[in-house]
Amino acid sequence: MQKALIGLTLLTVLLLSTPTWAGDNGNGTVTINGLVVLKDASCLGAGTWEEAKSITAALSQSTAPAGCNLKDGSKAGKWRLPYISELRTLCSQKGQLTNARSAIYWSYNPSPVPPGAYYIMSTLFPNCYDINPRPTSFSNIITVRNP
């Protein structure tokens, strides 16, 4: 009975807490809270909103710039821009990334927004805050995928 109570207590604590977990995968990526992220936060460079979406959609181990050191076997269509909530998590775990610039990074907002604002952008490093740019702006590209 006592072991069951201890087990139930531990399970409750684990379910109620939402710790941020991060680890280096050794293949050019890190995993942060179950999300696979390019370890080099600057290797994809910068571009407009349309370029960011295109670069991200085409990213694979064979198409990644050499500086990304991507060796995870990923295929095109698996990578995407992070949601704004995911970008905030990346900001809080910026120590896990290399070449994280104090700059603006593109992200994607999956929820409905006013017409013409189907994008959202955040300053990722060193502080996190949201801004809504013009889609023709040049901003840094960081990309994520599910495991």
Number of helices: 3
Strand order of the largest sheet: 1-2-3-9
What is the rounded Rg?
A: 17 Å
How many domains is the backbone divided into? 1
- Give the CATH architecture: Roll
* End-to-end distance: 38 Å
Global shape: globular
Helix and strand succession?
A: HEEEEHHEEEEE
How many beta-strand elements?
Answer: 9
Strand content range: 15-25%
- Relative helix content: 10-25%
CATH C-level name: Alpha Beta
**CATH topology heading:** Mannose-Binding Protein A, Chain A
Helix/strand/pairing category: alpha+beta
Q: Uncertain runs with pLDDT below 50, 5 residues or more? A: 5-18, 114-120
* Arithmetic mean pLDDT: 77
Explained architecture:
The protein has 147 residues and is α+β, with helices and mostly antiparallel strands. It has one domain (19-145): Roll (Mannose-Binding Protein A, Chain A). Helix content is 23%, strand content 19%. It is built from three helices and nine strands, in the order αββββααβββββ. A four-stranded antiparallel sheet has the order 1-2-3-9, with no helix packed on it. The chain has a three-stranded antiparallel sheet with strand order 5-6-7, with helices on one face. The protein has a two-stranded antiparallel sheet with strand order 4-8. A hairpin with a 5-residue loop joins β6 (120-123) and β7. It is globular and about 35 Å long. The relative contact order is 0.22. Residues 5-18 and 114-120 have low confidence and may be disordered.
